[in-house]
Design goal:
It catalyses: (R)-4'-phosphopantetheine + ATP + H(+) = 3'-dephospho-CoA + diphosphate. By secondary structure, this protein is an alpha/beta fold. It is built from six helices and five strands. The protein has a five-stranded parallel beta sheet with strand order 3-2-1-4-5, with helices on both faces. The chain binds adenosine-5'-diphosphate.
């Protein structure tokens, strides 16, 4: 039984992430999408909100579960008896960070292998940051995210506006 972990911030989940999730779920028996709690970035969505949005997006994929975790990703993977860590590679710009991360993780926990999936060309430009930028300027983001995520972003934007803040 091969268990894989797909870690990330998912702030929020995009159609690019979902493409990786669907493909990774096909080649692993079990996939745990793991939302990092102590991300250094200033997140738009709370961890609970990010997990809820991901769960809604993945509800029809039977071998996918969503969890949050704190601390080292390899420690979380070990606790869940995972042997694979999935990461998506969009462009050369991702490569430098990702190879360093994979090598560090391998040094820390040699039993866990990082599996890179090349992003579908359709989503190679897409990031959570781009989605938030587009939403901030009122662009249509339905191409980038699922309807539940779109609604959640609009609700956030409106709440922030009411508080006199911006995204
Ligand atoms: P992190 O902060 O860990 O990079 P992200 O949520 O930004 O978290 O990304 C999680 C993973 O998903 C990373 O491996 C990233 O390369 C990948 N990813 C992000 N956007 C896309 C996309 N458009 N297509 C495929 N993979 C993506």
């Amino acid at each position: 039984m091969a268990t894989a972990v797909y870690p990330g911030s998912f702030d929020p989940v995009t159609r690019g992430h979902l493409d990786i999730i669907k493909r990774a779920a096909k080649i692993n028996d079990r996939l745990i999408v793991a939302v990092l709690i102590n991300s250094a970035k200033n997140p738009l969505f709370t961890v609970e909100e990010r997990v809820a949005l991901l769960r809604e997006c993945c509800k029809d994929i039977p071998n996918v579960t969503v969890e949050s975790f704190d601390g080292l990703t390899v420690e979380f993977a070990k606790k869940r008896h995972a042997s694979v860590m999935v990461r998506g590679l969009r462009a050369v710009t991702d490569f430098e960070n990702e190879i360093q991360l994979a090598q560090t993780n391998h040094a820390l926990m040699p039993g866990i292998e990082t599996m890179f999936l090349a992003t579908s060309i359709k989503w190679s430009y897409l990031s959570s940051t781009i989605v938030k930028e587009a939403a901030r300027y009122g662009s249509n983001i339905s191409k980038f995210v699922t309807p539940n995520v779109e609604d959640a972003i609009h609700a956030k934007v409106e709440r922030l506006r009411a508080e006199g803040k911006t995204l």
